[in-house]
Hints:
The model of chain A has no long low-confidence stretch (mean pLDDT 91). With 524 residues, chain A is of the alpha+beta class.
Amino acid sequence: MQWRLDKRRVSEEEQLKDNGLTLDFDEVARKGALGGGEKLLSKWYGIYGSRHPGAHMARVVIPGGVVTSSQARRIVQVAEDYGQGKISITTRQCIQFHWLKAPALADMLRDLAKDNLSCFHGCGDVTRNVVACPLAETCQYKRINVLPYAKETAKALTAMRDLDNLPRKFKINFSGCGAGCGQPFINCIGAIAVTRKNESGEEETGFKVVIGGGMGWEAFIGKELFAFVPPGRIAAVNRAIALLFRDNGDRRDRTQSRLKFVVEKKGIEFCREVVIDFLEKENVSLDGFVFTDAVEDLGVPYPDRPLLEPNPVGTDGLVTVRVMVPKGEITHPQMKRMAQLTEEFGDKRLFFTQRQNIEIHGVKPEKVETLSGEIKKAGFATEGFFGLQDMVACVGSTYCPKAVTETRALFDILHPVVKNPKYSEIWDKAYINITGCPNSCSPYRIADIGFRGMRIREQIGSVEAYEIRIGGEHNRLGRLLGEYKLSDCARIVETILDTFLKERQGDETLAQCVNRVSAQEGVK
Amino acid sequence: MSEDKSLGPFLEAVKELDIKYDTAPIDQEYSTFAGVGAEPLDFKSYAKDIPCQAACPAKTRVPHYIQALAEGNPDKAYLINQEDNVFSGVLGRVCSRPCEDGCRHNWTDINGPVHICHLKRGASDLKTSKPEPLPAWFEETGKRVAVIGGGPSGLTAARELRRYGHSVTIFERDKVLGGMMVQGIPIFRLPRETVAEEVKAIIDSGIDVKLNTSVDAEMMQQVIDEYDSVLVSVGTVHASNLKLPGLPDDGHAVSGLKFMHDYNMGDIEDGSMTGQNVIIVGGGFTAVDCARSCARAALRLVGEEGTVTIVYRRTAGQMAAKYDEIEEMGVENIHIETLMNPHSARVENGKLVGVSFQRNALEDVTSEVGKPRVRAIEGTEEEFPCDLLIVAIGQTRTLNILPEGIHQNEGDGHATSHEKVFMSGDFNYGSLDVITAVQDGKDAAEKIDTSLMGRKRRQKHIAIEMTEVNGETGRVRDHDLQLPPLMPTLPLGQRDGIAEVELGHDLEALQVHATRCYWCQNKFEIDHDKCIHCNWCIEVTPRDCINKVSRLFYDEDDFVETSLETDLNHEATYIWIDSKECIRCGKCLRICPTSAITMRKTELCGCSTEEFEEKKSHNQAYGTVAHAKY
């Protein structure tokens, strides 16, 4: 075979994908290992490689982050039988098992399926786990319960075989209000519930759709695609956006192929036209859509950070009790205990949050204290959420082959610093994200203080270091403070917090303070 | 990346901590990121980056013209060649190809090096118009220069001197210009139209030619008086003689040089040699090409019944011929006898009938030419029937062309004890190949111009240009696996000794060859200040080209001579691309999350000193330069 210069070139991954996406894990079990091309294809089935040779990681897809207690028990069994008993909660509400061996993958997937759990489309160039804000069902600020819509979208898009081969991963988020607890602005699609008055003067609830957000080396905040979409058609809109991405994403260069680059390079107007075109082709009515006009949100006013509220009481009068899982790592007996606790005190479900914690919903107010006591006995804290102590670290070089730094080490260094009682008055005013590489699994740019792993060279050799950004919010990127060695990170955090104590006005969060100061500096 | 100044008190508080790091310096392989590089470091890095160009005596921009061919533009490819090596049609057929020894493809074991020489010939074959004189660099100076000898070196020097603005006169002993190109190289290897075409492009730039003009020492003195400068490039026309007992002096043996001259000029009558046994003595560095050509020419003349034998005193491994050439000679029914020295000749009835040879043994001692010394073994004489003995054991120059008192300066190529007289080509350094002669002619022309004008008027530099093509050179890794088509040749039966044996490729075949080339003019380098040591580039490399290194060792020009590799993250000072190993696939650039890796185009350029200073002051050889992808 001879290659011509004018041959249209695609990335190697695209060539592999063209050969088909079928992978039989029983065959893998017989062979004992994943072959070259199979390593890529296995991602479509939620299986990744690990930093440790021979080990694999599996990511269980959990739309909205909600599992029943029986599913939780299944997770416990799988972790115990296949994954050295370790369970990781991800920042996109999934569950991960590390330490899996290739021959056992088929059996593991079968075991998961017994409780309707699946790893399918856990990774790969497909619609990834659809995320929703953790309090979606009961939050008092919600415009609408977005969980059913998240599940509907997840089910619909995963079932569509024409969306199996997207140029790159595709992430969708649902948020119940504009507070951004679900981080809608850093997803490919963020669907934010709004309540508005329509032309006939009636109140109706639907979604504002923002697209093209994303972290990574080049971070983008999502841009508004539609100001209002009636709720019944949100799955169709999500599909149309996926089609836009499928046909316009860069298939030659995987680092430039996410939807954020399509939006950046071709413009939001182009994207809107293409999406409307797809909707019309698929006979989706555009009645009731608001494309670009401003839509006034009439719902209850929400605080800046609703999740800060300890043990929030839901619209049904029942309480949500949270379990803080440091670094998102939980062992199988602990998870089993959580399943037991929700069966005993809660609504027999567990919710996984984007800050790698667990929530038990539907607890009767009088039982809260008992439950909290039980949780503490299991080794977890039940307060300090969404604050300084609630740090999020990606798995880092402990497991991840891509990570530059051991994020857990920084976590352990910073934990005593932020626990210092002198910061007690700002414990709930800032949170910290730590990520080990530019891929930003822990979205460091939208945290009050964000760390991204790197190395700084010395005269000979190099040491672990972090790029530090401060002032990020769910819809605003943090500002670069500098690049510092791991050994200096603790005193820099201390300095930042001390400065914040000095500079803060009223009830400001760290991000608000930084951005106010920054705006003043700009005026100077 | 610099911190956000608007952070005000936060930034100040952190600065007050006074955290300073002792960081290893940024290592960059060129003195400037983009623009004009003219430091010794730049030339060293360039030579390392593009080994084929470095190996070429004339520093032909090999990857540049190969890329032009791959893009289907033989005219551009020819022009690059014409500029750099003057006789690209000739060299595309007869070059000694030092470039191919340097080619990075030598390491792959997949089809060997890129067939650079054939590509050069392809550009010459497929160009759409006849070669034209190249534009002059400078206005007419009014200076007159005489060039003695119209061979490759003399012609090159004449062309360059003309471009410098001097008026040039060539004195040629023979009836045609071209020197060894028309006298020494057999016609079936190099059609004379090709030579004529390229010589014409030189002469048409306005050069006076005096053919059939033999210059001796006396006339030389007149020329020196008449002209502002004289370049002597008369080659090595004195064939070394072989004194053999029993062999009369009067022409029973003929030198290879004379034989080839007569053959190429058509002076040997057809049928006069049929059925004869011809023996060629030689195989050393200067003679092997001649010897081989003689053998092929002789074979045609002697026909089926005759025999042609090459006798060499060392082993085949020490011959200047390559193994594939030796094999080819076998196909053509030319015998090779090694480890033999001529001992004596036998003449009967005034006719040579046989030459006896003595066997040799190789000694462990190395002779002054770098090969093992030979020792004749007594009593091993053996006679071979021989009607014609061709002696091709070397050529030397005849210095008596120079008037008395003029001699070559020690250690200073080109210049002589007379300020007006310069020498170049084979006459300068002893007999070598065409490509070396071309470069020597260029160098001599530059020296003459400097001496005439009193200053150096042209300057070389490396032009470094930033690219925005995302590491895509136009070539993909799969191009490595292509099967390069073989050079089509004339069937054995049709090889009449005149028709060209190698027929040349068509454009499609050339493009297959051209896309095998890695196009090493593209330089991939990591900006160490942007690198975060994520190692993603190391993960995607196809070869051992990107490494963690703990130390780089520099020479006096800051050129990286060696590196100390490490596997450990904490020992890695740099993530470093070794351009020796880099195959320019661009994967690392595309995976790099921080845009620390860039692809730049490098090209060796020459321009007038004024233009060079101008470019250097702006440091922009080419338009604007942007560093990042966005």
